[in-house]
Amino acid sequence: MIRWNKPNKYHNKxxxxxxxxxxxxxxxxxxxxxxxxxxxxKIKDLELQKAYELIPAQYEESTETYTKGLHKGExxxxxxxxxxxVYRADFVYTDCETGQQVVxxxxxxxxxxxxxKRKLLxxxxxxxxxxx
Length: 132
Description:
This protein is of the alpha+beta class. Helix content is 22%, strand content 38%. The chain has helices at 25-39, 112-125; strands at residues 3-7, 13-17, 20-22, 43-55, 58-59, 80-82, 85-95, 101-105, 129-131. The strands form 3 sheets. It has a 4-stranded mixed sheet. It has a 3-stranded antiparallel sheet with strand order 1-2-3, with helices on one face. The chain has a two-stranded antiparallel sheet with strand order 5-6. The longest helix has 15 residues, at 25-39. 11% of the residues are buried.
């Protein structure tokens, strides 16, 4: 059963399908198609919302070490200056015909943030995103 929730700033509605929440009807429909392809043996290892770290978190330097517990003697990270930049792919799967891993993103609108993350993913991991 598909159920929709309130719209977001890009005017797409969030949908829930099989207990999984999707950002748009397009993404929900694509998941349904990919499940059928997986059941037919055309793709395998379907993953949702796989994260790729593009730029690691930035910390202040620190000379302190942990004094007790599991990490005793290890250096403590300094104060967090900048959080990590992460790209979260809608779908990742292996194409059984080619053996290649495919990273897919369902797009209704390409934001500036998405374009930058797409370029960083290609630069850092050599991964080209298949846009649907």
